[in-house]
């Protein structure tokens, strides 16, 4: 299957070289997003959102960015690319069909998508970009590894599986990573960039303030701007002095703003990237002097030391969580929840720390634990793995005690398993939080036997809630 898909995607990219330029206006509206474009010769449900810049001209070939959202919401994802696409001249295609799931099925869908875009737009075959968020970012990198002729990947909110089947090995594409500083995949993205650099990939990583989410338009535009400059350096785009100067000024301002905000490590790396990207076009000695100034700063040294400390600590936490949580969920021994209660308390203490980097690490670790638990929960079969589901929902009550749903599900599952004392305990914990929606409790499936018990009704009475019996 791997060999077949590899050949198919290679053939697909080969087609782009020979059949580009046969545009059909029904597939786009210049300067506007077209939400649900049908793919020819495909199921009616297979659609994509398209955007072409106002200056789009069929007589020229244009770089194309294919965007993969983990939930297949191309209409929402494409909005983040339109500003940069308009300014730097990119066609953007965001699939409404490709989403988290089987890679083989997604490879087939991507094949159909590429064929349709190739037949409908004027494509520059040497400037094809795959982009994605979270699972879509992993898919974008995996697809680029298979296809070989992809020029760049823009990975947002996730990296790739180091050591996995679709791990990048040969530097056949450029890579730009974008990650929120509170995203639970933050360490994974750092490790991915370290790996790519060790393999001599042309790779960069930008950080933004936020969690596990698409970056805003400013950062997507920076990614597209960076690619535009790199394409000029490689001779894939005709050198444009006015555009280069505009790009340089924006990238300089980006690095300088980080400096002015006191983010000296990020500023240093931004100036370093500025030198690398523009050294063929401009004199950069003054930028080197700026980097020396930053590096001599006590604040820079302190921040670098702090980042390294957090990286090492968070890596250890992550290794433990990946090692222990799956086994505990499978074993479903609720006594092991004592360990997780202690771990979550440690994270809560980190979140209260006066050190900002500790606070961010705490948010990332909570996100990681929640994401891991959700991943395993989605794989469980309620009829045969109720004990594991119960474990996960009690785990959620520890991790996110402000949410009501885990308590309600714990009451349901405990009753289903005949653990009435446990069901009553978590019901009271829910009521202690001020929960008052008796209508939801009255209609909660699977707790009929609990609902008619004296203990249940006594609890409702204790918290001044209406009883049915």
Automatic annotation (TrEMBL):
**Which InterPro entries does this chain map to?**
AB_hydrolase_fold
Reading the lineage from the top rank, the first entry is: Bacteria
Q: What is this protein called?
A: Phospholipase/carboxylesterase/thioesterase domain-containing protein
């Amino acid at each position: 299957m791997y060999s077949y898909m590899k050949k198919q995607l290679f053939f697909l990219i080969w087609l782009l070289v020979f059949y580009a330029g046969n545009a059909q206006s029904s597939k786009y509206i210049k300067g506007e997003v077209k939400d649900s474009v049908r793919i020819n010769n495909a199921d009616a449900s297979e659609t994509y959102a398209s955007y072409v810049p106002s200056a789009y001209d069929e007589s020229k070939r244009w770089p194309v960015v294919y965007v993969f959202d983990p939930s297949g919401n191309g209409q929402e994802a494409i909005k983040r690319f339109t500003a940069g696409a308009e300014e730097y001249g990119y066609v953007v295609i965001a699939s409404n069909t490709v989403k988290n799931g089987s890679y083989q099925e997604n490879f087939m869908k991507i094949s159909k998508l590429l064929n349709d875009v190739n037949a409908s737009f004027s494509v520059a075959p040497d400037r094809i970009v795959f982009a994605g968020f979270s699972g879509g970012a992993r898919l974008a990198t995996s697809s680029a590894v298979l296809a070989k002729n992809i020029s760049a990947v823009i990975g947002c909110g996730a990296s790739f599986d180091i050591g996995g089947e679709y791990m990048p090995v040969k530097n056949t594409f450029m890579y730009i990573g974008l990650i929120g500083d509170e995203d639970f995949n933050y360490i994974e993205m750092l490790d991915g960039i370290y790996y790519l650099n060790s393999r001599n990939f042309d790779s960069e990583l930008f950080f933004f303030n936020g969690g596990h989410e698409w970056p805003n338009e400013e950062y997507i535009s920076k990614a597209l701007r960076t690619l535009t400059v790199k394409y000029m350096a490689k001779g894939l785009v005709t050198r444009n002095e006015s555009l280069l100067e505009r790009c340089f000024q924006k990238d300089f301002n980006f690095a300088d703003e980080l400096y002015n905000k006191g983010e000296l490590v990020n500023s240093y790396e931004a100036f370093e990237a500025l030198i690398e990207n523009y050294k063929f076009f401009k004199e950069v000695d003054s930028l080197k002097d700026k980097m020396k100034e930053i590096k001599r700063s006590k604040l820079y040294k302190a921040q670098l030391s702090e980042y390294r400390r957090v990286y090492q600590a968070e890596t250890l936490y992550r290794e433990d969580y990946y090692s222990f949580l799956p086994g505990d969920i499978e074993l479903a021994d609720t006594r092991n929840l004592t360990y997780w209660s202690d771990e979550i308390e440690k994270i809560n203490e980190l979140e209260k720390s006066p050190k900002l980097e500790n606070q961010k690490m705490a948010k990332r670790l909570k996100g990681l634990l929640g994401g891991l638990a959700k991943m395993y929960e989605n794989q469980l079969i309620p009829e045969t793995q109720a004990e594991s589901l119960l474990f996960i929902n009690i785990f959620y009550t520890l991790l996110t005690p402000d949410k009501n749903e885990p308590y309600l599900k714990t009451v349901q599952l405990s009753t289903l398993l005949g653990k009435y004392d446990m069901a009553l305990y978590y019901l009271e914990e829910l009521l202690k939080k001020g929960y008052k929606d008796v209508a939801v409790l009255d209609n909660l499936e699977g707790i009929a036997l609990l609902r008619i018990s004296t203990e249940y009704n006594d609890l409702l009475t204790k918290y001044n809630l209406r009883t049915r019996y």
